Amino acid sequence: MRATVRQAGRATVQLVVSAAMTFGSYIFITVLLLTAIATATVVGAFMLPETVLLIRRIAGAKRQQAGGWTGRRIPEAYQPLTGTVRERLRTAVRDPGTLTDFRWMVAYYAYGTLPVLMLPLWPLGLVVDGVWCGLLRRRAVVLPLISRLADLDAHWSTVLLKPSPKAQLAVRVEELTQTRAGAIAAHGAELRRIERDLHDGTQARLVSLSMRIGLAKRAYDQDPEAARRMLDDAQTLAEEALTDLRHVVRAIHPPILTDRGLVGAVRALAAGSALDVTVTVDGLTDGHDGPRAPAAVEAAAYFVIAESLTNAAKYSGADRADIHLARTRTGLRVLVRDEGRGGAGGPSQAVGSEGEAGGSGLLGMRRRVAALDGSMTVTSPVGGPTVIEVELPCVW
Question: What are the DSSP calls for 42-83, one per residue?
Protein backbone atom coordinates (compact mmCIF):
# COMPACT_ATOMS: atom_id res chain seq x y z
CA MET A 1 0.00 0.00 0.00
CA ARG A 2 2.82 2.40 0.84
CA ALA A 3 4.45 1.92 -2.57
CA THR A 4 1.07 2.42 -4.26
CA VAL A 5 0.47 5.69 -2.43
CA ARG A 6 4.01 6.87 -3.27
CA GLN A 7 3.52 6.11 -6.97
CA ALA A 8 0.13 7.80 -6.94
CA GLY A 9 1.75 10.85 -5.35
CA ARG A 10 4.33 11.05 -8.15
CA ALA A 11 1.54 10.75 -10.71
CA THR A 12 -0.40 13.46 -8.90
CA VAL A 13 2.53 15.87 -9.16
CA GLN A 14 2.78 15.06 -12.87
CA LEU A 15 -0.93 15.69 -13.38
CA VAL A 16 -0.88 18.92 -11.36
CA VAL A 17 1.88 20.26 -13.59
CA SER A 18 -0.15 19.20 -16.62
CA ALA A 19 -3.19 20.96 -15.21
CA ALA A 20 -1.16 24.16 -14.76
CA MET A 21 0.04 23.92 -18.36
CA THR A 22 -3.53 23.32 -19.51
CA PHE A 23 -4.70 26.44 -17.68
CA GLY A 24 -1.91 28.41 -19.32
CA SER A 25 -2.90 27.01 -22.70
CA TYR A 26 -6.49 28.14 -22.18
CA ILE A 27 -5.21 31.65 -21.53
CA PHE A 28 -2.91 31.44 -24.54
CA ILE A 29 -5.87 30.92 -26.90
CA THR A 30 -6.51 34.64 -26.54
CA VAL A 31 -3.05 35.36 -27.89
CA LEU A 32 -3.70 33.01 -30.81
CA LEU A 33 -6.96 34.72 -31.66
CA LEU A 34 -5.35 38.17 -31.52
CA THR A 35 -2.51 36.94 -33.72
CA ALA A 36 -4.94 35.47 -36.24
CA ILE A 37 -6.91 38.70 -36.41
CA ALA A 38 -3.76 40.81 -36.70
CA THR A 39 -2.34 38.55 -39.39
CA ALA A 40 -5.60 38.70 -41.34
CA THR A 41 -5.34 42.48 -41.34
CA VAL A 42 -1.71 42.19 -42.57
CA VAL A 43 -0.71 45.09 -40.31
CA GLY A 44 0.07 42.79 -37.40
CA ALA A 45 1.69 39.97 -39.39
CA PHE A 46 4.94 40.58 -37.49
CA MET A 47 3.23 39.05 -34.42
CA LEU A 48 2.97 35.61 -36.00
CA PRO A 49 6.69 34.59 -35.75
CA GLU A 50 6.80 35.71 -32.10
CA THR A 51 3.63 33.74 -31.38
CA VAL A 52 5.13 30.66 -33.06
CA LEU A 53 8.25 31.03 -30.90
CA LEU A 54 6.05 31.20 -27.80
CA ILE A 55 4.18 28.06 -28.88
CA ARG A 56 7.52 26.32 -29.40
CA ARG A 57 8.53 27.12 -25.82
CA ILE A 58 5.24 25.80 -24.45
CA ALA A 59 5.49 22.64 -26.56
CA GLY A 60 9.13 22.25 -25.49
CA ALA A 61 8.11 22.41 -21.83
CA LYS A 62 5.49 19.73 -22.45
CA ARG A 63 8.05 17.56 -24.28
CA GLN A 64 10.40 17.84 -21.32
CA GLN A 65 7.65 17.02 -18.83
CA ALA A 66 6.34 14.02 -20.79
CA GLY A 67 9.87 12.78 -21.48
CA GLY A 68 10.73 13.01 -17.79
CA TRP A 69 7.73 10.84 -16.91
CA THR A 70 8.26 8.18 -19.61
CA GLY A 71 12.06 8.25 -19.57
CA ARG A 72 12.15 8.71 -23.36
CA ARG A 73 13.21 12.03 -24.81
CA ILE A 74 10.84 13.60 -27.36
CA PRO A 75 12.95 15.21 -30.13
CA GLU A 76 12.37 18.66 -31.57
CA ALA A 77 12.58 19.59 -35.25
CA TYR A 78 12.19 23.29 -35.97
CA GLN A 79 13.51 25.57 -38.67
CA PRO A 80 15.23 28.66 -37.18
CA LEU A 81 13.22 31.88 -37.37
CA THR A 82 15.86 34.32 -38.58
CA GLY A 83 16.22 37.02 -41.19
CA THR A 84 13.82 39.77 -42.16
CA VAL A 85 10.20 39.95 -41.05
CA ARG A 86 9.05 38.49 -44.36
CA GLU A 87 11.54 35.60 -44.11
CA ARG A 88 10.55 34.89 -40.51
CA LEU A 89 6.88 34.95 -41.46
CA ARG A 90 7.46 32.59 -44.40
CA THR A 91 9.45 30.17 -42.24
CA ALA A 92 6.86 30.24 -39.45
CA VAL A 93 4.07 29.38 -41.89
CA ARG A 94 5.93 26.71 -43.87
CA ASP A 95 7.71 24.97 -40.98
CA PRO A 96 6.10 21.53 -40.45
CA GLY A 97 6.86 21.89 -36.74
CA THR A 98 4.36 24.77 -36.54
CA LEU A 99 1.53 22.51 -37.71
CA THR A 100 2.63 19.79 -35.26
CA ASP A 101 2.59 22.19 -32.31
CA PHE A 102 -0.72 23.72 -33.34
CA ARG A 103 -2.31 20.27 -33.69
CA TRP A 104 -1.03 19.33 -30.22
CA MET A 105 -2.32 22.54 -28.67
CA VAL A 106 -5.80 22.04 -30.10
CA ALA A 107 -5.89 18.45 -28.83
CA TYR A 108 -4.46 19.52 -25.48
CA TYR A 109 -7.49 21.68 -24.84
CA ALA A 110 -9.44 18.41 -24.72
CA TYR A 111 -7.19 15.83 -23.05
CA GLY A 112 -5.63 18.50 -20.80
CA THR A 113 -8.67 17.99 -18.55
CA LEU A 114 -7.45 14.53 -17.54
CA PRO A 115 -6.10 15.85 -14.18
CA VAL A 116 -9.69 16.67 -13.17
CA LEU A 117 -10.47 12.95 -13.12
CA MET A 118 -7.81 12.55 -10.46
CA LEU A 119 -9.72 14.54 -7.84
CA PRO A 120 -12.38 11.92 -6.92
CA LEU A 121 -9.87 9.06 -7.16
CA TRP A 122 -7.86 10.09 -4.10
CA PRO A 123 -10.62 9.95 -1.45
CA LEU A 124 -12.16 6.90 -3.11
CA GLY A 125 -8.80 5.19 -3.39
CA LEU A 126 -7.79 5.84 0.20
CA VAL A 127 -11.01 4.24 1.41
CA VAL A 128 -11.34 1.38 -1.07
CA ASP A 129 -7.65 0.51 -1.40
CA GLY A 130 -7.11 1.02 2.32
CA VAL A 131 -9.60 -1.74 3.04
CA TRP A 132 -8.75 -3.84 -0.04
CA CYS A 133 -4.97 -3.74 0.56
CA GLY A 134 -4.71 -3.14 4.29
CA LEU A 135 -7.24 -5.69 5.50
CA LEU A 136 -7.63 -8.15 2.63
CA ARG A 137 -4.00 -7.97 1.47
CA ARG A 138 -5.06 -7.58 -2.17
CA ARG A 139 -3.55 -5.44 -4.90
CA ALA A 140 -4.76 -1.81 -5.06
CA VAL A 141 -7.32 -1.07 -7.76
CA VAL A 142 -8.21 2.63 -7.48
CA LEU A 143 -5.03 4.58 -6.75
CA PRO A 144 -3.13 2.99 -9.70
CA LEU A 145 -5.67 4.68 -11.97
CA ILE A 146 -3.98 8.00 -11.13
CA SER A 147 -0.70 6.69 -12.59
CA ARG A 148 -2.59 5.48 -15.65
CA LEU A 149 -3.97 8.97 -16.15
CA ALA A 150 -0.42 10.35 -16.05
CA ASP A 151 0.69 7.62 -18.49
CA LEU A 152 -2.16 8.49 -20.83
CA ASP A 153 -1.33 12.20 -20.73
CA ALA A 154 2.34 11.51 -21.47
CA HIS A 155 1.53 9.00 -24.22
CA TRP A 156 -0.83 11.33 -26.08
CA SER A 157 1.66 14.19 -25.74
CA THR A 158 4.45 11.99 -27.11
CA VAL A 159 2.38 10.94 -30.11
CA LEU A 160 1.21 14.47 -30.91
CA LEU A 161 4.52 16.28 -30.28
CA LYS A 162 6.76 13.81 -32.09
CA PRO A 163 8.12 15.60 -35.19
CA SER A 164 6.79 14.48 -38.54
CA PRO A 165 9.16 12.78 -41.01
CA LYS A 166 9.00 15.91 -43.15
CA ALA A 167 10.12 18.10 -40.24
CA GLN A 168 12.93 15.71 -39.31
CA LEU A 169 14.06 15.65 -42.96
CA ALA A 170 14.09 19.46 -43.09
CA VAL A 171 16.23 19.65 -39.94
CA ARG A 172 18.52 16.94 -41.26
CA VAL A 173 18.99 18.81 -44.55
CA GLU A 174 19.85 21.96 -42.59
CA GLU A 175 22.40 20.05 -40.50
CA LEU A 176 23.98 18.52 -43.60
CA THR A 177 24.14 21.94 -45.26
CA GLN A 178 26.04 23.34 -42.29
CA THR A 179 28.25 20.24 -42.13
CA ARG A 180 29.06 20.53 -45.81
CA ALA A 181 29.96 24.20 -45.40
CA GLY A 182 32.25 23.32 -42.49
CA ALA A 183 33.84 20.48 -44.45
CA ILE A 184 34.45 22.76 -47.42
CA ALA A 185 35.99 25.40 -45.14
CA ALA A 186 38.21 22.78 -43.49
CA HIS A 187 39.22 21.40 -46.87
CA GLY A 188 40.07 24.90 -48.12
CA ALA A 189 42.13 25.64 -45.01
CA GLU A 190 43.98 22.33 -45.44
CA LEU A 191 44.74 23.09 -49.09
CA ARG A 192 46.05 26.54 -48.18
CA ARG A 193 48.24 25.01 -45.47
CA ILE A 194 49.66 22.45 -47.90
CA GLU A 195 50.29 25.14 -50.51
CA ARG A 196 52.02 27.31 -47.90
CA ASP A 197 54.18 24.43 -46.67
CA LEU A 198 55.16 23.46 -50.21
CA HIS A 199 55.83 27.05 -51.31
CA ASP A 200 57.70 28.26 -48.23
CA GLY A 201 59.51 25.02 -47.45
CA THR A 202 59.92 22.36 -50.11
CA GLN A 203 59.84 24.66 -53.14
CA ALA A 204 62.39 27.07 -51.66
CA ARG A 205 64.75 24.18 -50.85
CA LEU A 206 64.38 22.70 -54.33
CA VAL A 207 65.15 26.06 -55.96
CA SER A 208 68.23 26.44 -53.78
CA LEU A 209 69.19 22.84 -54.63
CA SER A 210 68.93 23.52 -58.36
CA MET A 211 71.05 26.67 -58.05
CA ARG A 212 73.79 24.89 -56.07
CA ILE A 213 73.94 22.04 -58.58
CA GLY A 214 74.26 24.61 -61.39
CA LEU A 215 77.05 26.45 -59.57
CA ALA A 216 78.80 23.15 -58.85
CA LYS A 217 78.72 22.25 -62.54
CA ARG A 218 80.29 25.58 -63.46
CA ALA A 219 82.97 25.33 -60.77
CA TYR A 220 83.77 21.67 -61.36
CA ASP A 221 86.59 22.25 -63.91
CA GLN A 222 88.25 25.26 -62.21
CA ASP A 223 87.73 24.39 -58.50
CA PRO A 224 86.77 20.74 -57.84
CA GLU A 225 86.94 21.21 -54.05
CA ALA A 226 84.43 24.07 -54.14
CA ALA A 227 82.20 22.04 -56.44
CA ARG A 228 82.36 19.10 -54.02
CA ARG A 229 81.33 21.36 -51.12
CA MET A 230 78.44 22.69 -53.19
CA LEU A 231 77.35 19.13 -54.00
CA ASP A 232 77.49 18.26 -50.28
CA ASP A 233 75.27 21.28 -49.55
CA ALA A 234 72.97 20.21 -52.36
CA GLN A 235 72.66 16.74 -50.84
CA THR A 236 71.78 18.28 -47.47
CA LEU A 237 69.13 20.45 -49.12
CA ALA A 238 67.72 17.40 -50.92
CA GLU A 239 67.41 15.52 -47.63
CA GLU A 240 65.70 18.52 -45.99
CA ALA A 241 63.31 18.79 -48.93
CA LEU A 242 62.45 15.10 -48.56
CA THR A 243 61.83 15.64 -44.83
CA ASP A 244 59.48 18.54 -45.63
CA LEU A 245 57.61 16.40 -48.13
CA ARG A 246 57.22 13.63 -45.55
CA HIS A 247 55.73 16.14 -43.12
CA VAL A 248 53.25 17.33 -45.78
CA VAL A 249 52.27 13.76 -46.66
CA ARG A 250 51.88 12.88 -42.98
CA ALA A 251 49.48 15.79 -42.51
CA ILE A 252 47.33 14.57 -45.42
CA HIS A 253 47.18 10.93 -44.30
CA PRO A 254 49.83 9.64 -41.91
CA PRO A 255 51.52 6.56 -43.43
CA ILE A 256 51.75 5.03 -39.96
CA LEU A 257 47.96 4.60 -40.03
CA THR A 258 48.29 2.36 -43.08
CA ASP A 259 51.26 0.47 -41.68
CA ARG A 260 50.29 0.01 -38.02
CA GLY A 261 46.60 0.88 -37.78
CA LEU A 262 44.98 3.42 -35.48
CA VAL A 263 46.05 1.80 -32.21
CA GLY A 264 49.69 1.54 -33.26
CA ALA A 265 49.67 5.09 -34.63
CA VAL A 266 48.18 6.46 -31.40
CA ARG A 267 50.73 4.58 -29.31
CA ALA A 268 53.48 6.13 -31.45
CA LEU A 269 51.92 9.57 -30.89
CA ALA A 270 51.86 8.94 -27.15
CA ALA A 271 55.48 7.81 -27.14
CA GLY A 272 56.59 10.95 -29.01
CA SER A 273 54.53 13.38 -26.95
CA ALA A 274 56.04 15.78 -24.46
CA LEU A 275 53.45 14.56 -21.94
CA ASP A 276 53.26 11.31 -20.02
CA VAL A 277 50.45 9.69 -22.01
CA THR A 278 48.50 6.57 -21.08
CA VAL A 279 46.63 4.76 -23.86
CA THR A 280 43.77 2.36 -23.13
CA VAL A 281 41.99 0.40 -25.86
CA ASP A 282 38.62 -1.35 -25.79
CA GLY A 283 37.60 -3.62 -28.64
CA LEU A 284 40.40 -2.63 -31.04
CA THR A 285 43.56 -4.47 -31.99
CA ASP A 286 47.00 -3.45 -33.20
CA GLY A 287 47.93 -3.63 -36.87
CA HIS A 288 45.80 -5.71 -39.23
CA ASP A 289 44.78 -8.50 -36.82
CA GLY A 290 41.16 -7.41 -36.42
CA PRO A 291 38.49 -5.28 -38.06
CA ARG A 292 39.43 -1.67 -38.71
CA ALA A 293 37.44 1.49 -39.12
CA PRO A 294 37.37 3.17 -42.56
CA ALA A 295 40.48 5.16 -43.46
CA ALA A 296 38.65 8.51 -43.18
CA VAL A 297 37.45 7.66 -39.65
CA GLU A 298 40.93 6.57 -38.55
CA ALA A 299 42.46 9.74 -40.01
CA ALA A 300 39.93 11.95 -38.20
CA ALA A 301 40.51 10.15 -34.90
CA TYR A 302 44.29 10.41 -35.34
CA PHE A 303 44.01 14.14 -36.10
CA VAL A 304 41.81 14.76 -33.03
CA ILE A 305 44.26 12.95 -30.75
CA ALA A 306 47.34 14.61 -32.25
CA GLU A 307 45.77 18.09 -32.02
CA SER A 308 44.54 17.46 -28.48
CA LEU A 309 47.97 16.35 -27.28
CA THR A 310 49.60 19.33 -29.01
CA ASN A 311 47.17 21.78 -27.38
CA ALA A 312 47.58 20.11 -23.99
CA ALA A 313 51.37 20.30 -24.20
CA LYS A 314 51.37 23.95 -25.34
CA TYR A 315 48.58 25.58 -23.38
CA SER A 316 47.17 23.43 -20.58
CA GLY A 317 50.21 23.22 -18.29
CA ALA A 318 49.51 19.52 -17.76
CA ASP A 319 52.28 16.95 -17.41
CA ARG A 320 50.17 13.90 -18.27
CA ALA A 321 47.22 12.89 -20.43
CA ASP A 322 44.98 9.86 -20.94
CA ILE A 323 43.70 8.52 -24.27
CA HIS A 324 40.89 6.01 -24.53
CA LEU A 325 39.91 4.32 -27.80
CA ALA A 326 36.77 2.19 -27.88
CA ARG A 327 34.92 0.31 -30.56
CA THR A 328 31.17 0.76 -30.18
CA ARG A 329 28.26 -0.90 -31.91
CA THR A 330 27.77 2.10 -34.19
CA GLY A 331 31.26 3.52 -34.54
CA LEU A 332 34.43 4.64 -32.81
CA ARG A 333 34.73 6.59 -29.54
CA VAL A 334 37.79 8.70 -28.76
CA LEU A 335 38.39 10.32 -25.38
CA VAL A 336 41.38 12.53 -24.54
CA ARG A 337 41.78 13.87 -21.00
CA ASP A 338 44.45 16.10 -19.49
CA GLU A 339 44.79 17.45 -15.96
CA GLY A 340 45.75 20.98 -17.01
CA ARG A 341 44.32 24.37 -16.16
CA GLY A 342 41.21 23.93 -18.33
CA GLY A 343 39.26 26.75 -19.92
CA ALA A 344 39.58 25.36 -23.46
CA GLY A 345 37.29 27.23 -25.83
CA GLY A 346 36.54 29.94 -23.27
CA PRO A 347 36.32 33.66 -24.07
CA SER A 348 39.83 34.26 -22.84
CA GLN A 349 41.38 31.97 -25.42
CA ALA A 350 43.45 33.69 -28.07
CA VAL A 351 43.17 33.08 -31.78
CA GLY A 352 45.17 30.04 -32.77
CA SER A 353 45.37 28.72 -29.22
CA GLU A 354 43.30 25.99 -27.67
CA GLY A 355 40.11 27.97 -28.22
CA GLU A 356 37.50 27.64 -30.92
CA ALA A 357 38.65 30.78 -32.72
CA GLY A 358 41.76 29.20 -34.13
CA GLY A 359 41.99 28.00 -37.69
CA SER A 360 43.08 24.62 -36.33
CA GLY A 361 42.61 23.73 -32.66
CA LEU A 362 39.10 22.88 -31.53
CA LEU A 363 37.44 24.45 -34.57
CA GLY A 364 39.45 22.35 -36.99
CA MET A 365 38.71 19.24 -34.94
CA ARG A 366 34.99 19.98 -34.91
CA ARG A 367 34.96 20.47 -38.67
CA ARG A 368 36.73 17.18 -39.32
CA VAL A 369 34.38 15.32 -37.01
CA ALA A 370 31.26 17.01 -38.42
CA ALA A 371 32.32 16.13 -41.97
CA LEU A 372 31.94 12.46 -40.98
CA ASP A 373 28.57 13.10 -39.28
CA GLY A 374 30.18 12.61 -35.88
CA SER A 375 29.84 14.50 -32.62
CA MET A 376 32.40 16.18 -30.39
CA THR A 377 31.98 17.25 -26.78
CA VAL A 378 34.48 19.44 -24.93
CA THR A 379 34.32 19.69 -21.13
CA SER A 380 36.91 22.09 -19.77
CA PRO A 381 36.02 23.96 -16.58
CA VAL A 382 38.50 26.51 -15.31
CA GLY A 383 41.01 24.61 -13.21
CA GLY A 384 40.63 21.47 -15.29
CA PRO A 385 40.45 18.78 -16.28
CA THR A 386 39.90 19.09 -20.03
CA VAL A 387 38.03 16.17 -21.58
CA ILE A 388 37.49 15.90 -25.33
CA GLU A 389 35.10 13.13 -26.36
CA VAL A 390 34.44 12.28 -30.01
CA GLU A 391 31.95 9.83 -31.51
CA LEU A 392 32.62 8.83 -35.13
CA PRO A 393 29.94 6.66 -36.76
CA CYS A 394 31.10 3.82 -38.99
CA VAL A 395 30.31 0.24 -39.98
CA TRP A 396 32.74 -2.41 -38.78
Answer: STTTTHHHHHHHHHHHHHHHHHHHHHHHHS-PPP-------S
Which segment of 107-111, 130-134, 261-265 scores lowest on mean pLDDT? 130-134
Lowest mean pLDDT among 71-85, 301-315, 345-359: 345-359
Q: What are the angstrom distances between the C-alpha of 42 and each of 90, 95, 272, 363, 374?
A: 13, 20, 68, 44, 44
User: Each residue of 84-115: b (16+ CB within 10 Å) or e?
Assistant: eeeebbebbeebbbbebbeebbeebeeebebb
Mean pLDDT score, 288-315: 85
Query: Please, what is the Cα angle at 240 between 224 and 212, to 5 degrees?
Result: 30
Q: Residue 337: what pLDDT? A: 93
124-144 burial string, b = 16+ CB within 10 Å, else e? ebeeebeebbeeeeeebebbb
Q: Which amino acid, one-letter code, is at 97?
A: G
CA distance 181 to 350: 24
Q: Is residue 40 predicted with pLDDT exceeding 60?
A: no
Strand 331-338 versus strand 320-327 pairing type: antiparallel
Cα–Cα distance between 142 and 281 in angstroms, integer?
A: 54
Distance of CA 257 to the CA centre of its chain: 25
What gap in Å lies between CA 196 and CA 199, rounded to an integer? 5
Q: Compute the half-sphere exposure of residue 18: CA atoms within 13 Å on the CB side of its CA.
A: 33
Going by the DSSP 8-state scheme, the letter that residue 258 receives in this structure is: H
What is the torsion angle, in degrees rounded to the nearest 10, for the CA atoms of residue 172, residue 175, residue 181 and residue 184? -70
For the segment 143-162, what is each residue's pLDDT rounded down to a tens digit? 888 888 889 999 999 999 98
Q: How far apart are CA 181 and CA 163, in angstroms?
A: 26
CA distance 244 to 256: 17
Q: Of the candidates 11, 128, 105, 120, which has an alpha carbon nearest to the alpha carbon of residue 56? A: 105
pTM metric for this prediction: 0.53
